[in-house]
Amino acid sequence: MASPIAPAVSAQQIDRFASDGYLVLPDLVPPATIQKLRVEADTLLRDRLARMVASRTLDPRVTWWRLASGVPYVLKVKPVVDLSPAATAVADSLALRGVVADLLGAPPKLMDNKLMYKQTVDITAGWATLPVLGEEVRKHTDAAYYATRGYPRVLTVAVCLDPCTETAGALRVWPGSHRRTITMIPTANQGPVVPDTAAPDEAALTLVAEPGSVLIWDAALVHASGPNTSGHPRRLLVLGYSPAHPDNGESR
Q: How far apart are CA 114 and CA 60, in angstroms?
C-alpha cells in the first residue's frame, strides 16, 4: 500500500523548527488522501450532529457553541481516529512519524487527535444549552492544556484539508514564543489564554497554506486564528505527538 504522505525534513528545517517553534511543509499529503479526509470529515460531522438532534443529547466529542446571532458553530470533533480510517492512516504513517521523530528528538506516540471545522451548521439546536462565543480562537498554547494531562513535551501537527487563507482563519503564530515562559489568563469557556502584552499582534505571523500542506508547531508556541469569513470550509486534521519514552523529547 502506498504511503498516505511523502517524506521528510532536512537538517536546516530541524534547526529552524528548534528556533522558531513551527514548520510549514507544503504538498506533504497527496490530493487523493486529502479528498478521503474531506469526505470522512464531512460524513463524521453530519452523523454526529444528526445523532445529537435526534436524541437531544450533547455529544462529548463535539465542541460547539452559539454565535451572537444565535447560529450554532462547530469548532471541532475529538477524538476521530477511531471513526475515520483516512485520519488513522495519516496519523500512523511511517513517513509522518519519521518527520515528527526528527523534530521531537524521540520516537513519537499519538496522544491527541481531532478534526477542526470552524463552521456554522444549519441544524435545529434550540434544545441545547450552549455558551455564546465568537468565531476566533484566542491566543493560547497547547502546552497549557497538555501539561495538565501529564505531557510536558508535545508537537502539534495540522493537515490542511482546505485552503488556509487569512480570510479562512489561517493559523497565526508567535515565532520563538515556545522558548520563553508565557503568562496565562483563565477564561470561563476557552481555557487559559495569552494576554496581548505577552504576545503583541505585530509579532504574529500568519501561516497561509494550501490543501495537502502540513503545519507543525511546538505545543508551547503561542498561536491563534481568526474567524472564517471566506465562505468556504477550513478543515484541519490535528494530531498531537509526545515522546514514546518519558525520558526523551526534552525541548531543545
A: 13
**Is the Cβ–Cβ distance between 105 and 18 less than 8 Å?**
no
Contact 189, 131 (CB under 8 A): yes
Q: What backbone torsions phi and psi does residue 217 show, to the nearest 5 degrees? A: -140, 150
Give exposure, 190-220, as e/b (b: 16+ Cβ within 10 Å): bebbbeeebbeeeebebbebebbbbbbbbbb
| Residue pair 109/244 in contact by the 8 Å Cβ criterion | yes
How many CB atoms lie under 10 A from the CB of residue 240?
Answer: 23
Contact call for residues 193 and 144 (beta carbons, < 8 A) = no
Q: What is the DSSP letter of 57?
A: -
Instruction: Give residue-wise pLDDT tens across range 81-100.
Output: 999 999 999 999 998 999 99
Name the percent of the chain lying above pLDDT 90: 87
The alpha carbon of residue 39 and the mean position of all alpha carbons in its chain are separated, in whole angstroms, by 18
Please say whether the beta carbons of 62 and 69 come within 8 A. no
What's the first-to-final CA gap in the chain, in angstroms? 35
What contacts 1, CB < 8 A, 6 or more positions away? none
Place of cell 472564517: 228
In this prediction the pTM is 0.93
> Could you give the CA distance from residue 59 to residue 52 in angstroms, rounded to a whole number?
6
The answer to whether 32 and 46 have CB atoms below 8 angstroms apart is no
Q: Based on DSSP, count helices (H) and strands (E) in the chain, helices before strands.
A: 5, 11
Place of cell 444549552: 129
Report pLDDT for 119.
94
